[in-house]
Amino acid sequence: MGLHRLYGHTLNPLKYFMKAYYYLKVILLLAFSLIGTLAYSQISLPAMFSDNMVLQQQSDVPIWGKAKANGKVKIVTSWDKRTYSAVADSNGKWQVSLKTPSAGGPYEITVSEKNTVRLKNILIGEVWICSGQSNMEMPLAGWGKIVDYEKEISDANYPNIRLLQARRKTSTYPLEDVVLDGAGWQICSPETIENFSATAYFFGRDLHQNLDVPIGLIHTSWGGTPAEAWTSAESLTAMPEYVEKVENFSRWPQELEEQRKSVQPKIDEWDKNVLSKDFGMKNNVALAAQPNFNDEDWKIVSVPEVWENNILPDFDGFVWYRKTIEIPEDWAGNNLTLYLGTIDDNDITYFNGKEIGRTDGYNIDRQYTVPAKLVKKGKATIAVRVMDTGGAGGFRSDAGKMYVAPANKKTLRENLDGEWKCKAAVNMKDIGARPQFVAENPHNPTCLYNAMIAPFVPYTIKGAIWYQGETNAGRAYQYRTLFPLMINDWRTKWGYNFPFYFVQLANFMKPNDQPVESAWAELREAQLKTLGLANTGMAVIIDIGDAEDIHPKNKQDVGKRLALQAREKTYGQNIIGSGPIYASYRIENGKIRIIFQPNESKLIAKNGELKGFTVAGPDRKFYNAHAEIDGNEVVVSSPEVKFPIAVRYAWADNPACNLYNEAGLPASPFRTDDWAGTTINNK
After folding, report:
1. Are the C-beta atoms of 519 and 110 separated by less than 8 Å?
2. Residue 41: what pLDDT?
3. Which terminus of the chain is more exposed, N or C, with fewer CB under 10 A?
4. Distance from C-alpha of 593 to C-alpha of 575, rounded to nearest angstrom
């Protein structure tokens, strides 16, 4: 039967189709509207609330989220079968505080309104937030490869330690939720610990073993970042030098496309300026990578090695490296694997003048494929153009790990350690920093607080550990104000005076036999002065650094010394948590007597005579000094200083020093004078 006969009249097919389409569209719109309404009314929680999480014991623990506007939310906790309720505001936001018992578990929490969210395998214990720059970020394996990393990973079976990993992110305003790596909290195991912060893990492991309670570790750090990036706008503007910077940053649009419209022309101009100054580049052609390039005047350097330890102290910018190798006949016409390890910061790598790869990031292994068409019998040239934006620069691979080999027969590798040629191309001092999109630049004030700290507030924590300062070393005097300000800022946001324990900078860079000025020493002093802030503690690691690596691999002792602080000061254990800390001095009979803060552990000189002390007279010229332990004091003198007025201990980038207490903990570097340092005017 035709449609026209069904309806008793003639029907225009097109008109019928249009009416059907109209009604279908209305139905679909209503359906999508209903779906949107339902979705909006669904209970949702921030990413940090997940299965396997740890909640702080014996506390009023906030939990929050979103629901339907004005909706009534019900929360049930399995540890006491208690029911809590909250009413969402007009924006759908709600929050309630749960009373937690003593350490234990596992437990569950159910949150319901129109739908139900069930959080399972929850532990009640001690929660610590762990933050800072690359030495906090440094993982057990990956680019870190700490001491005994393979064994440490295989032994990491601690189901009552839980890990939460924040992803790197910036923001111009405080975010309500954090972006995580992985699906929320992870149970500590060999499968989950490999890329987690080594310092945080060893801190948490020590607490877990000595307190016998579940431990939750929230790791949120970013390598190479300054303290001001981790501080809120409200607090940072209390420092006059940051007012304009914070205001300018807050005006940036959050969307990357909007930023690109403003910044890309500046980036293009900067890149053009660099290329014009780089002797190794011409018309975008890498002349310095060509096999026949004349490198007779280049310096011979040992690789792997950062260039600060070779021929370029205190240099940031672009540097060329070259090495000539011999290709065997049976390698010709085959793909090769070129492994260079980590390079600080960025590189472009060439083989016989042709680019074979480029990588941005100091913590990423470089492994490139050399195409078979470039592989010919005889001499070949590997060239690497390295860009370093700050700190140490160059090759950071472990010795013996750099190689080139046939891609399918890596056992036939040729080691690339040893002599390379090197020449500086462009100094950052001549070109300034490369413009960046806000979303790519973690150095902006407040940007990491906004994205990687603010979302965790007010998740209840017991305290915080912090390993940072290298990036601020050039502004050490400013750090005297900035660092305590940041600590107080976090405490203000959380609403309570939680413990804050931090790591003093390790020994690093080339040692000096004679007394010298040192920005790193001044930064350590700023950290020492921060102990004047209540409820803080400092792990001294002046003895476990590495002259050639800003990322020392002994993170076990770093975590342990942080845990000693917490165990003594937060958990009240009867242990010695600190090494000797300078208190005062007294001049007597051509000598200076150093008095330390009271400590039950006696002073000792480890491995021989006491060293690391220097002394100066009114001319302010320091000389290496003789030092002796007298009870719990140290007496310092020098035949070259008749009337001593100042003493310094371990005052260098990488000092030779050996003052400890009997508990095996090193003394913090210090000085008795307050003479202006090298960073006093740096902002």
Report:
1. no
2. 58
3. N
4. 27
